[in-house]
Give the backbone structure.
Amino acid sequence: MTAGLMAGVFGIYAVAVMPGLRRTDDRTFVGAFQAIDRAILTPAFLATFMGALLLSALAAVLHIGDGGRSVLPWAAAATVLYLAVFIITMVVNVPLNDQIKAAGDPSHSADLAAVRERFDEARWMGWNTVRAVLTTTAFGFLAWALVLYGRITASS
């Protein structure tokens, strides 16, 4: 479930949030992005973001052994994909988010065009699209692992 929720978060940024912000002036873009970034950093979001990795890994570990051989590769692959998402987030998206937050209050900034240019929307969006695709794929793999698990337990 956490992987599915994260696929939705990354997906909605890709298809609505960032395309909507792209159409705004520099002051609106910087202020709105800063506000969204502050608002999303909640315990619920962090638990979901981290939970997708930890629970995928747990699903894989729980199927090591003879009984879960058909489930294990799918759960392990989902874990690897989401680990890539986690790394991308920490290496690319979070530093860009921190950079735009460091610009401070947009009403006190003289050169918001430079702040927005340094943020590099295209880079943020490109990597977010990668995160959306990888997380959606990981969620699909976990769903398939669940189907396989159901078949194993039904035949027991």
